[in-house]
Design a protein that fits this description.
The protein has 2 domains: 144 residues, Aspartate Aminotransferase, domain 1, CATH 3.90.1150; 220 residues, Type I PLP-dependent aspartate aminotransferase-like (Major domain) (Aspartate Aminotransferase, domain 2, 3-Layer(aba) Sandwich), CATH 3.40.640. The protein is built from 13 helices and 12 strands. A 7-stranded mixed beta sheet has the order 2-8-7-6-5-3-4, sandwiched between helices. Strands 1-11-12-10-9 form a 5-stranded mixed beta sheet, sandwiched between helices. Helix 4 packs parallel to helix 10, helix 5 packs across helix 6 and helix 5 crosses helix 9. The chain is globular and about 60 Å long. It starts with a helix and ends with a helix.
Amino acid sequence: MDLSKRIQGLTGGGSDGWDVFYKARRMVADGTDVIELTIGEHDIRTHQSILDAMHRSASGGHTGYAMVPGTDALRDAVAERLTTRTGVPTTRDNVLITPGGQSALFAAHSAVCDEGDVALFCDPYYATYPGTLRGVGAIPRAVPCHPENAFEPSYADITDNCAGAKSLLVNTPNNPTGVVYSKDTVEGIARACRDNDMWCISDEVYDTQIWDGTHISPRTLDGMAERTLVIGSMSKSHAMTGSRVGWVVGPKEVITHLVTLATHTTYGVPGYIQDAATFALGEGTALEQDVGAPFERRRALGKAVIAKQNAVSLVPSSGAMYMMLDIRNTGLSGEDFADKLLDTHHIAVMPGESFGSSAAGHVRVAMTVEDAAFETALQSIVDFAKEIEP
């Protein structure tokens, strides 16, 4: 029996780019002590008060089917959050609760792309983007973004690649680069979408982790609320990665259709998890700041290490939980650098090539171990780069 071409082709027929990560995990399983700076997983767990709220809800009986669009309370909380943060009036009718941000990405593209439609995404990109687009039957097309522009997409970058495109997926604050898109960049994104009649799908799961600059959602700009779908999640803002709760925010008509999609796919999110998320959002920005504080500290530690040498340079690290290091002076690719670093120093980082061709010669460092260990690991990375620099 044959499997579908779609399911067999999600990765485009090649490696998924995570070979170094898998190698590091094998080493750990074999008993090797590896400092893992690979995936965006907090080194703290979900706050006990959120877990207590989840327990109260489950013990209180909210363990049956929840409303497929999401509970009214959580949809209202998300709508209030977006209204307060962006100034764009938002109600529960603009919100669908999903099993995490990844499910929201799939749903959003399902809403706007038909089989064979071209869907744009920015390179470098979060690892699942191309496969998500293939999964809905779209044809993924990368918009190359350049290190000399801090990997921010320009209007020209987008329009040079948008012929026949139905949608554009953007991500700010950005994974993998840690860059927060500037006002000029977001305005260029909006203009490209309006000029070329494209939907904008804006992945904003890191919107609480801003260290420099200001987060600007494309949805806030003229003519964009009716053509933008915003992806959000509790994973990064509240260290609730395993709880799997996110959302799509967009025009009411789109959300109505996405509720129908959810009815035929996920059938919603467990009610006790939604109640915990509602509680967490009700705690306001203080809890979000506590979750983000370790990354802001480690960013400062990392910048100080980088500033003392010239072998490695830092892509502007303005948000999220990552630092993108330019290691092209070593003469190695990101893949070779990461592989040799793992073999010799037992430090695991992600090659830039894992996130697309534009980030070749870079490595992504997740700031996800405690402060002293992170500072020591980054110093070792810099020293390694010095040792192999031609």
